[in-house]
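for the writeup, i need someone to sanity check this before i put it in the appendix. the sequnce is what the collaborator sent (i think, or maybe the updated version? ugh). structure was predicted straight from it, no edits. if anything looks off just tell me and ill rerun, i have time this weekend
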Amino acid sequence: MDWPGGQLPHKRLNPLTGEWVLVSAQRLERPWQGSVEPLAPTSAAAHDPECYLCSGNLRANGERNPDYAGTFIFDNDFPVLIDEDRAGPGLQEAAHGLLVARPERGISRVLCFSPRHDLSLGRMPPEQIRGVVEAWRQESRRIAALPWIKSIQIFENRGAIMGASNPHPHGQIWASESIPNEHRKELDCQLRYRAEHHRCLLCDYLTIEAASERLVFENASYAVIVPFWAVWPFETIVISKRHWAAMEDLTVRESADLADALKRLITRYDNLFESPFPYSMGFHQRPFGGGEAHEAITESWHLHAHFYPPLLRSATVRKFLVGYEMLAMPQRDLTPEDAAERLRACSEVHYLDRRARGT
């Protein structure tokens, strides 16, 4: 579906969450005298002796990293979620009218993508990105085997303005004993769609977007789309063409194709403003834990990744979710169709590689 009056104010429904986003493309014409971010620095050092994540260096807790050559995974030194073995006796469930608190066990892990401090997923060789995908798959399988785990969130925050505390290429894995808010909304909507239509929501969405102006690119296993309901200016969703629900279900071919899709997308992002492009990205996979609903969840849930980048006009002007967005509903100044067109126009040869070759 292509919106005929896309440049006029209108709202679009996100079928994965049941929420609406307001599209006001005419707002992009307003003059900007607001916040301007500093240009994101590009590290030229393959190894930073002060970095807590570089191979062989001391971390903040005093432990020394091994001299790793591929990926490196460890328990977060400052975890958001901890299991019973580390927590000991702690908070018990408490309720007093509207005031309710419950304990939450979990696992917090860090995954360094490469020993090279100066790289990103977009600039790593394909075989190294495949190593990252394999690490995600193996960690997901290992954590999902714990009977008390219900949700596994694999994600990366890239860039200081997205809250990354360290520029070394790395991501995180948080797993919890309950289903988080965003996962719960997507689960409810996908289960409802399956019950009403006897089909998968994202399988049907892929069919709609197969030749649309929101499709950025595709390979044999994945489609990269600026979703019809996107909130962030250059938001994308990466959807597998085969219906599967969890990272552990990846085939060898799908792992290689996922590495290819990630490299191509992140390279396009960096080329958009010829600067390291900040984002938060993560994979939404099915809830775990089995039970009577396991089959229905597996049939309904379709694994996908969200990319939420904040930049809007340039490498130094970002989109803020404030005011109306916080108090009423999300609003965007650039139509998803225009965003996809700009991303399609970006080269898949990284601008730093072009500069190094003098082209």
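The first strand starts at residue 10 and ends at 14. The domain at 46-88+100-357 is CATH 3.30.428.10 (HIT family, subunit A).
thx in advance!!
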